[in-house]
Amino acid sequence: NSNEGSFHFRYAQGFRQSWGLETFTQAEFNEFQDLTLRKILGGGLRVQLFKAEKRSIFAGLGGFYEDEKIDGDADQANFRGNLYLSLRSLISENVESVVVLYYQPSFKVDRDYRVQVTAGLETKLMKSLKLVNSLKYAYDSRPPLGIATDDFSYRVMFNFSY
To answer: How far apart are CA 143 and CA 139, in angstroms?
Structure first.
């Protein structure tokens, strides 16, 4: 009951042990949400709040520009803030749990914000390849006309890092 896809690329550069800068780009579509194409380009500051042998917590503060093409609605372009909290926990040598919470307010429209919570398990298959099982809840305070504010999804993905 969905036809969706996405591409996400992120580059993070640490400058000190506890902080760094990151930049990212993303392209996605979601037929269920009438999203023909969303393109994102952004960046920000990434701060390590806690790090132990098997657990870590990071926070991010930044922003991005998005360009959206909505089926049956006017195209939209917007600048949004991007605040996130990322929690990682190593369950075993090859399995890691990840929970990420995003808050993305619009800089242009008052009371226009998105919240997303993603929880997943990453299983290492090879040195650079992981199998990811992910459960996501997303809330959009101002979705396109006729689209629900809440969205749940379960995904199985591959993560390649180098």
So the answer is: 9
β-partners of residue 87 are 57, 99
pLDDT tens-digit profile of 30-63?
Answer: 988 889 999 999 999 999 999 998 999 999 999 9
> Quick one: tokens of 44?
């920000």
| Beta-bridge partner residues of 44 | 22, 62
Three-state DSSP state, 128: coil
**Residue ranges in 45-129 assigned as alpha helix (H):** none
Cα–Cα nearest to 22, from 67, 80, 82: 82
Give the pLDDT confidence of 133-147 residue by residue, as tens digits: 999 999 999 988 888
88, 98 Cβ separation under 8 angstroms = yes
Among residues 26, 33, 58, which one has the least CA distance to residue 45?
Answer: 58
Q: Which of 136, 135, 125 is CA-nearest to residue 159?
A: 125
